[in-house]
Specification:
Blueprint (H helix, E strand, L loop, with lengths): L4 H10 L5 E5 L6 H14 L7 E5 L11 H11 L6 E6 L7 H9 L4 E7 L7 H6 L4 E5 L5 H6 L10 H10 L13 H24 L4 H13 L7 H10 L6 H13 L3 E8 L4 E11 L2 H8 L6 H15 L3 E7 L2 E9 L2 E8 L5 H12 L7 E5 L6 E3 L2 E5 H6 L6
Parallel strand pairs: 1-4, 1-5, 2-3, 3-4, 6-8, 10-11, 11-13
Antiparallel strand pairs: 6-7, 8-9, 9-10, 12-13
Helix pairs in contact: 3-4, 8-12, 10-11
Length: 405
Amino acid sequence: MVYRTEYMKKLDFFKDKRLIKVVTGIRRCGKSTLLEMFQEKLLSEGVPKERIISLNLDEPENSLYLDWELLYEYIKERLVPGSKNYIFLDEIQLTPNFERAVNGLFLKRNIDIYLSGSNAKMLSSEISTLLAGRYIEISMLPLSFKEFCSVKKSGAQGPDYSRLYTEYLVNSSFPYTLELEGNYNYIRDYLAGIYNTVILKDIIERKKISDAMMLESVVSFLFDNIGNLCSTKKIADTMVSSGRKISVHTVEQYLSALSDSYILYKIGRYDLRGKERLKTGDKYYLADVGLRYYLLGSKGADQGRMLENVVYLELQRRGYEIYIGKIDSQEIDFVAIKNAYAEYYQVALTVLDETTLKRELAPLMKINDHNPKHLLTLDNTPPASYKGIRQINVLDWLLQSDLQN
């Protein structure tokens, strides 16, 4: 198991605080393992086993507790009076009206609650209203590049990070793929299981989608266009041009379901001149680039877009609110905001060509503020600075990263 240090730090920080800890993220990103690790930590700190109550609601033997009232009674009967009890409920969204059980348990002073879920609807407006001010969401992703490299054996000359980066993309960042020791056929089978579970079980079955082939066509289009500007109309028009009739409204439903299942992340645009969010021209990024290689293979893969995807996920891990920057007619890949403070990121495979370098620097140079501006590339050159814009090797940037609170 990969020890997810930064997520563990967050759980530890919020331990025993009067907040429900909710860990969210795509299936198999490590949520269950994280909760297991934290339970082991509690045991090592002297918490008796009988004061830890844990249920994975995705397991068939726990199907009885998909009734929220039975779930509530099960936990209530096992509480140790007069002592702190730690409750862990994995894949809680499978229990309809689970928030009623959670709210009832939260009212008891001797309980510390930890939940996990693979669908954003578990924190829908209705649930959020009932639990308002009572929970903290910890958004979890598959392995970062730094985590991935930390468990890979180094050669005599030290790690070959360029090779590891390729492995990280193609072999996936899902933690369990490390157990498959680079066997791509087995990794493909494993990724197929994740893809089919998310698409078939989490989306088609639960959303009662009748045209599974159409959904998969939309998914293929989005996987093939990560990092490109997409609108619901453009997606619908593309499907129609290939002989598949679909409405804009249906596309919107599909996109919502894909985002809710954490397989895709939508990022909007921000006008740096007008200081406002724009309503059109979104981009989508994948929770794991390996899923793109699984579904579409390496043919036609834009390596620059793959790199953008990796950078986007890393910025999300660091706790930024992320937008595409628009300044006049030009674009900045990422505007990353935290505590009302912005940083700017341009991402390119290489800028060794002078024309390419000027093109990538141009939009950053138009920004008048003195906030940090970064140009991230795969070029193996020393760090450089252009009028305050720092050019950094993206692998160095990824390796120095830590999850930020």
